[in-house]
Hints:
By secondary structure, chain A is mainly alpha-helical.
Amino acid sequence: MIEDCTLCGLCKNACPIIKILPDEKSSPRAKAILIKEKKIDEIFNLCTLCEGCKVKCPNNVDLCSEIRKMRKRMILKGKESEANKKMIANVKKYGNPFGKVEKGKIPKDLYCC
Amino acid sequence: MLKPKLIEIVGKENVLDSDADKLIYSYDATQIKGKVDYIVLPENIEQVHKLTRAANRYNFVITPRGAGTSLCGNATPDGGIVMDFSKMNHIIDVDVTKKVAYVQPGVILEDLNQYLKRFELFFPIIPSSHEVCTIGGMIANNAAGRKAIKYGKTVDWVYDIEIVDGTGKHYKTKESKKFAGTEGCIALIVGATLKLTDIAETQSMDHFEFKKIEELIDAVKQLQKRDVNSIEFFDPLSAVVAGKAPKYNLFVEYDDNSGKIISKEDWDKLIALRKNVGQQLAVKGYDLTSDPQIPIESLNDFLQWLKAKEIPCLGHIGIGIIHARFSKEQTALVEEMYAKAKELGGIVTGEHGIGTLKKKYLEAEFKEDFMFKKREHDPNNILNRGKIL
């Protein structure tokens, strides 16, 4: 339950994103604040859904589930990332997220959800 | 008008001002919503220096921020800019022979101690937020933590600090005591030389449970005579929230093998039990914390008072820091608790600082002394305005 988040910030310790982007904006707590305040923002894409934050959370808040829900809302509101749009289109057309891939060649664009 | 100036100083990528950014930085762990106009992320001392001079010239407030784990509004902004030090996060130098490290303010304590393991050294101040808190924030709050009975507070382990004060003066000083615990109200910490100590070759732990406060206090008094590095506790109300029997739980750590608990797995479980109980209480509605420091001879009276009022508590009992936690219905008791702490010879804050929440409980003498420092180092009141004073 996101209501159980007390903004203590201990989740930051386990987050692989914040190891690379150390500012508060990239933290799991930042996402928790936006979820609590019902704000959609592209920072929900800055998450690997690894659930490290849940492991470190003293209250066992399942933030990744909440982030998945926010990503769905972003798609429904037409605010998904360009990479996501391309990836979905590629899956529909080519059956893989990378688009047309020639045998033995590395795909031009690499996407990750 | 201000944004171009900020961009000129720190670059476009280091100035944030979207609605989401402002919302994120309007909070710290106090859970009180502040307001912020811009967030800046300086990458070096020169930028901090220029920002401080600009704040004096254009009259905007700077709220410094480390990890944002403050619990009494120390990093809650009230307009102006939030200065997030997270990009100044480098361990610059470690001198193993002298056992010192020079670090930037945004270095995370856990990262520092992980790095120091290769030299079998560590920085021994371990607050509950040790996995995320920054060195700058620890100095600004003069953090203590669970090993304080042996190692004291942060200031005891700072050899010198490098500051930019509110007037824009930048210098290194050994007067750490003057600046530690001033919560970014008179100077911004831009570097620090920290003293380090050896990691003990063997460590062990004990866990005791007591029904009565008297038994708990007797045990603490006996343990204080021994070479322990940590004496922590929580009360029966907290024990129930943590899923334990309603007793006083006492946790003791030793830098030798005199304790019964040696396995890392058992050790980690007990440390987590003690560390997590504060946040578990917050979820149960006890979300306002406090940190009075009470002399050992008055602890019995203080804990009896808390018990009578049904206020859960935990903390660093070895040095008398008690984190009494209040629900919204108990808010009226906060003032009464501080009055009781002072009556028993205690002080209002042992480690969390004053921020905005404890200003009204301060003694006039302390305020006068602090005002003197403020006039000397930040006469235009551009640093962390509204905190402490």
